[in-house]
């Protein structure tokens, strides 16, 4: 299994946890999606990849969500409210909604916090190792991304909700919340926005620091962020 990570400016690599769903891309496998229903506007492919950290069914092959989808991530540190952008990232939102409704995120911990170079909190891995995923992968949705600057990065503003990954089109279940303006390559699907109160909550967690397990300012948050439930719609 590969860890899903974020690569920052000037070659800064966040290797362990920010990598999103870790085990996803070990195998191309067969398509792991259901037969498409008659409703919906976007066809999605969810391919078998890696072993599931928690048993779930793959999403249906047709994304039925549209517009802005409300989501609440209830955690031990407080509720984080977000709007998921199903128009910009339909297959990503469809997967997130499917996982949430199946309780995949319930009783999991946000396993990585970075407070230097990039400012993000990463969640969505039931194993808490940075290598766990749902047993399937899906493609990036980057069409709406701005062109990278000369240094190869773009701005990910505070409040951005995006997918972590282990390379191109290896999305699974791990996602990250940007709590302070951060520059990263345009390689991470942005699928929503956390509200100001949620950003402030994550900032408070960040102010308490990390255990530096992966280096200075990079590790498990000192203040645990344990997800009790994710609700959508």
Account of the 3D structure:
Strands 8-18-6-7-16-13-14-10-9-17 form a 10-stranded antiparallel sheet. Strands 1-2 form a two-stranded antiparallel ribbon. Mean pLDDT is 88; it is low at 8-39. The protein has one domain (6-232): Cyclophilin, CATH 2.40.100.10. The chain is globular and about 40 Å long. The protein has 233 residues and is mainly beta. 54% of the residues are buried. It has helices at residues 90-101, 196-207; strands at residues 6-7, 13-14, 42-43, 47-48, 62-63, 68-75, 78-85, 108-109, 112-116, 118-123, 136-137, 154-156, 160-163, 175-178, 182-184, 190-194, 218-219, 226-232. The chain contains 2 helices and 18 strands. Helix content is 10%, strand content 30%. The chain starts with 5 loop residues before the first strand and ends with a strand.
Total of helices: 2
Share of residues in strands: 25-35%
* Terminal-residue CA separation: 32 Å
Oligomer: single chain
The whole-angstrom Rg is 16 Å
**How many structural units, i.e. domains?**
1
CATH level-3 fold name: Cyclophilin
Secondary-structure class: mainly beta
What average pLDDT do the residues reach? 88
Number of strands: 18
């Amino acid at each position: 299994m590969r860890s899903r990570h974020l690569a920052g400016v000037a070659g800064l690599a966040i290797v362990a946890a920010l990598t999103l769903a870790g085990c996803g891309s070990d195998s191309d496998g067969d398509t792991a999606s259901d037969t498409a229903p008659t409703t919906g506007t976007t066809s999605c492919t969810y391919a078998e990849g890696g072993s599931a950290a928690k048993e779930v069914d793959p999403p249906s092959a047709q994304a039925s969500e549209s517009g802005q989808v409300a989501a609440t991530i209830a955690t031990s540190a407080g509720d984080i409210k977000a709007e998921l952008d199903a128009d910009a990232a339909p297959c990503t939102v469809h997967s997130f909604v499917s996982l949430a409704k199946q309780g995949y995120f319930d009783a999991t911990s946000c396993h990585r916090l970075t407070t230097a170079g990039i400012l993000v909190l990463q969640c969505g891995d039931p194993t808490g190792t940075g290598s766990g995923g749902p047993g399937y992968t899906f493609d990036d949705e980057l069409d709406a991304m701005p062109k990278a600057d000369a240094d190869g990065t773009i701005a990910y503003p505070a409040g951005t909700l995006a997918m972590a990954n282990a390379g191109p089109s290896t999305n699974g279940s791990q996602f990250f919340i940007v709590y302070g303006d951060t520059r990263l390559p345009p390689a991470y699907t942005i699928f929503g926005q956390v509200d100001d109160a949620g950003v402030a909550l994550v900032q408070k967690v960040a102010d308490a620091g990390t255990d530096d397990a992966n280096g200075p300012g990079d590790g498990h948050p000192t203040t645990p962020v344990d997800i009790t439930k994710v609700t959508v719609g």
